[in-house]
Structures are given as C-alpha cells and as structure tokens.
Amino acid sequence: MGSFELLIMIKEYLTQNKDRFLSELFELLRIPSVSADSKHSGDVRKAAEYLLEKLKAAGVDKVELCETAGHPIVFGEKIINPSLPTVLVYGHYDVQPPDPLDLWTSPPFEPVIKDDKIYARGSCDDKGQVYMHVKAFEAMTKLNALSCNIKFMIEGEEEVGSEHLATFVKENKAKLKADVILISDTAIISLDHPSITVGLRGLSYMEVEVTGPNRDLHSGVYGGAVANPINILSKMIASLHDEQGRVTIPGFYDKVVQLSASDREAINKAPFSLENYKKDLNIDDVKGEDGYTTVERTGIRPTLDVNGIWGGYTGEGAKTVLPSKAYAKISMRLVPNQENNEISELFAKHFKSIAPKSVKVKVTALHGGQAAVTPTDSKAFKAASAAFEEVWGKRPIPTRDGGSIPIVALFKKELGLDTVLMGFGLDSDAIHSPNEHYGIKNFMLGIETITAFYKHFSKS
Ligand code: BES
Ligand code: MN
Ligand code: MN
Question: In terms of Cα–Cα distance, which of 88, 77, 75, 71 is closest to 31?
C-alpha cells in the first residue's frame, strides 16, 4: 500500500468512527480521576480500568494494571515484529482538581461540546490526548497498517509528581525497552502554526509554614506587640524578587544555561502576539524578568511563584484575630542544569535566613523534577516533523514550553531514551483552570498525525 493511499484510508476510518471515538472519550472524562484527592482514589482506579479495557478492545495484546504504592499504571504492548522499532507511549489518566467549581459554565465531569470544543476536566490534559493514541492504534490495527511495535504506559499520578512511576521505571527497565518515548501532553502554537515542544521546565515545589505566637490572639489586645505570621510571610515572599524581576535566592541562577544570541533569536522568531496574549488574559501589561521577552520568560528562564497562601480568618464577615500560623505553597520553574533538589535546599536555607526572630519557619519540599531538552536531530523527531508536515501542510516550529513533565528527564536518565513531545493542545485550552477544553479538530488531527508519525518512524 502506498503511503498516500494509507493516509486516505486512515482519514476515512477516522471520519467514519469519529462519533464513537468522542463518546468513548466522554465516558473516560466522566470519571473524576483526581489524583490529589484521596476521596477520588476509587475513581482514579476506574479510569485506569476503563483505559485498560479500551486498549484491549483496540487490539493491544498484553494489557495489565501494574499496582504501585499509589495509583496503578496501565501498561500494554503489541509486538508485531521484534526487528521493527518500538515506540513507548506515555501519558496520564489522572487530572487536576476541578475547583473553583462555581467558575465552570458546565460541570467539570459532564463533558459537553460547545463551539466544536470538548469542555471537561482532563479533556486536554491529558485524557483527550492519551485517547488520541488509543484510537490511532485502533485505526492502524484495523487497517493492517501498524508498522512499529508499541508499548503503552499510562500513569495516574502525573499531576502529583509521578513518585511511584519513577520507582516503576527504575524497576522495570527490560519491560520498558524501546527506541523512543512518544508523549502528547503539551501544546502547539496554534492551529495555523503547528509546533513540536523541544524543551520543558523543571520544578521545585515547596510548602512553608510560619508560626508566630502559640495560639490565635485577639488582634486588639496583642496587635502591634506580637509578630503577625501573615504580615511576616507576605514580606518574606515579597523579598523573593528584586526590582528587575529576578529571584533573590543566593545561588539560584548559578547553573542556569545562558543561551547564545542566535538561539535566543530563533526562539523569538516563533509566531507570538503580545497584544493577543494580553487580550486573552485581560491584562494591561505583562510582568517578568527584565531583559527577556515573554516567550523567553516562560521558555528558557527560571521563575518563582506563590501558588497558594492561607492563614487567619477567611470566612464570612470580620473576625479580629492575630493568627498563630500562616502558610504558602511556592513553586519554582527550573531550566536545564538547575538541579531541583539543590534548588529546594537553596530555597529552604534562604527562606529560613530571612525570617525574623519573632517567628519560626518550617519549609518542606513537596515534589519536583529536572528540566528537559529533547533533540531535534533524532530519527524520531524528524519523523514527528514529517508527520506534521504531511497532515498540517506546514513544517512544525520547535518551541520550549513553560510547563513540566518531570518524568521526561527521568526516562533519559534511567532508560537512556529520548522523548518526542508531540502535543496538540492550545495554551488557551485552560488546562488546570475552570472550563478546560480541547478542540475536536485538535483531537482528530492529532490522531491522524500520530498515525503518520509511525509511518515515517518505521521508514527511517
Ligand atoms: N501536561 C502538563 C505539562 C505541560 C502543559 C507542559 C502544557 C507543557 C505545556 C502536566 O500535566 C502538568 O501539569 N505538569 C505539572 C507538573 C507536575 C509535577 C505536577 C506542571 O507543569 O505544573
Ligand atoms: Mn499533563
Ligand atoms: Mn497537568
């Protein structure tokens, strides 16, 4: 069968089965597999079981739920010929918590289609993108067009740090033997500008607790004489950036790779409209480290952000209280060469050092991982690029994304495998936010592009 003919057949199969693909995906989206919330651990397992069934139905031979000390890993493989290349598909079936619920225009676990987009938690990150792989596999199997061996490893703890997957990878190197890892869990620039992610940031996620007096106090009787941990914490947090928008933790930038002028130029050549960016977010100005563009600030520079801050009275009305404790969750996005454990230590040391004597400070590292840069000269990258060119009619632009998939660096370290980040989301898909959505066009084109990837990869 000619390669053109094959693409036509695949297209036909996808068109004929589109409604069923969507209704199956909807079923998966109805399962509230929130990994962060132990109340949902039964649902997390249900999502794993659902995927297992669908992989089996699609023709994957060896499918199993691999138990871990946390949520199970869905594993499957189809080895058609040991002499052909093997692709290991990774993704995650767990999702972020849906809150704040009142900001959703339709319930997060009752998927609906509006303006050709699927609205549901997990529609883009990452159930919708995982499901493209299941359906691409189904189409190739049904049409006798499978040209590579495939392994699937879909985990349920990506959104909480992939702790048990890391152990699983270290303990199952033979099982995971492959030539490349393929992941759809990132974004393209736009439907007009397909792109392939070649860089992800690392992460260091901290929680801090500031304790003042041993109990909550009357803010009139004690206020002005005893340290208020919320006041203190706010000031400490404010001091973590200087006037130039740089992080003030000593040593934070020591290992940061400085990109050459030509690399920076290339990064800034990617289509990006600051006006549209601001309009989309309804902000009058952007803010970040001086001397870098918005694309550079998210792509190649490390950052520090407060993700949550709490303490004292936050209920209805007023309560005059000088709280005993204040807390914050603080994350740092890291770039190549920064080591997340080292950065966590630098943070802890610095944060304790800036605390006044009037309070006690506790710092805990929650999770983290290394940044990753994927090669653009590999067979697999070239196959992905050719797949986009064939299906989208345009050569994909390599981009560096600001988000993190810490397991990518671990795959390289433990398995020696490079990853191709062939994601199909859009930055405007509102992942982790209320009203997360995923374009049906992205979903369908994604399936097609994945099948084209296998074709090109097996030929190379
Ligand atoms: N799929 C995202 C990461 C992502 C999103 C990368 C968009 C590039 C573009 C992933 O599910 C995610 O949210 N990762 C977390 C890190 C994890 C350790 C909790 C993140 O980036 O916050
Ligand atoms: Mn994801
Ligand atoms: Mn996510």
Answer: 71
CATH number of the domain within which 127 lies? 3.40.630.10
Q: What is the pTM of this model?
A: 0.95
> Which protein residue has the closest C-alpha to ligand 1 atom 19?
159
- 336 close to ligand 1 (CB < 6 Angstrom): no
b/e per residue, 236-275, with b = 16+ CB within 10 A? bbeebbeeeebbebeebeeeeeebeeeebeebeeeebeee
pLDDT digits (tens, 9 = 90+) for 144-200: 999 999 999 999 999 999 999 999 999 999 999 999 999 999 999 999 999 999 999
Last residue of a domain, one of 320, 348, 369: 369
Length of the chain: 460
Question: Which residue puts its alpha carbon closest to atom 20 of ligand 1?
Answer: 404
- Pairing of the two strands 73-78 and 149-155: antiparallel
- Average pLDDT in the 24-33 region? 98
Instruction: Give backbone dihedrals phi and psi of 171, rounded to 5 degrees, phi first.
Output: -90, -5
Higher pLDDT, 140 or 460: 140
**Nearest Cα residue to 219 out of 319, 326, 322, 313:** 322
Q: Measured from the CB, is residue 157 less than 6 Å from ligand 1?
A: no
Question: Whole-angstrom distance between the N-terminal and C-terminal Cα of the chain?
Answer: 17
Whose C-alpha lies nearest to ligand 1, atom 18? Answer: 161
Report residue 6's pLDDT band, with 50, 70 and 90 as the boundaries. confident
Sign, CA dihedral 61-86-45-114, equals: negative
Give pLDDT, residue 460: 76
Burial 117-130 (b: 16+ CB within 10 A, else e): bbbbbbbbbbbbbb
SS3 74: strand
Packing angle, helices 127-142 and 440-459, rounded to 10: 50
Alpha-carbon distances, residue 61 vs 135, 359, 411, 440 (angstroms): 15, 59, 24, 29
Quote the ligand 1 centre to 16 CA distance (angstroms).
33
Question: Alpha-carbon distance 32 to 108, whole Å?
Answer: 9
The residue whose CB lies within 8 Å of the most ligand 1 atoms, and thus the one to mutate among 92, 95, 126, 159, is: 159
Q: Which of 336, 369, 402 is the last residue of a domain?
A: 369
Q: Which domain holds residue 356?
A: 202-256+302-369
CA–CA separation, 143 vs 13, rounded Å? 8
Tokens encoding 130: 């995982």
Give the burial class of 159: count Cβ atoms within 10 A of its Cβ; 0-12 exposed, 13-18 middle, 19 or more buried: buried
Q: Where residue 340 sits, what CATH number does that domain have? A: 3.30.70.360
